[in-house]
Amino acid sequence: MSKKPKTNISQENINEARSMLKITISRYFPLKRKQHRLVGLCPFHTEEPHYLSFNISDKRPDEWICYACKRRGDAIDFVSQFMKISYEKAIKEIA
Ligand SMILES: [Zn+2]
């Protein structure tokens, strides 16, 4: 039931899509620099605290986390959740 669908997308393409996190997210909403991280308005929840709960740390530039709703992931997770599309389609969307 929870098996990932078979994909013909290579690991290389997946890694490339993941490395595009900041650029990808900037297409959907603005990120602001705050010391050693980028912050923004999380699009996945509306409850407080909403403002600047969405974070990308310079230490882990390929991952995002929202401290309010606890969602996290990479660029592919973001696009697939935000656009409600499959993992595979999300990779193509980023490319
Ligand atoms: Zn959130």
Radius of gyration: 14 Å
Oligomer: single chain
Q: Note the overall shape.
A: globular
Percentage of residues assigned to helices: 25-40%
Question: What does the model show?
Answer:
- This protein is an alpha+beta fold and 95 residues long.
- The protein has a domain at 31-94: DNA Primase, Chain A.
- Helix content is 33%, strand content 18%.
- It is built from four helices and five strands; from the N terminus they run ααβββββαα.
- The chain has helices spanning 11-18, 21-26, 75-83, 87-94, and strands at 31-34, 37-40, 54-57, 64-66, 72-73.
- Strands 1-2-3-4-5 form a five-stranded antiparallel beta sheet.
- The longest helix is centred in the C-terminal third of the chain and has 9 residues, at 75-83.
- The mean pLDDT is 90.
- Residues 42, 44-45, 53, 66, 68-69, 71 line the site of zinc ion.
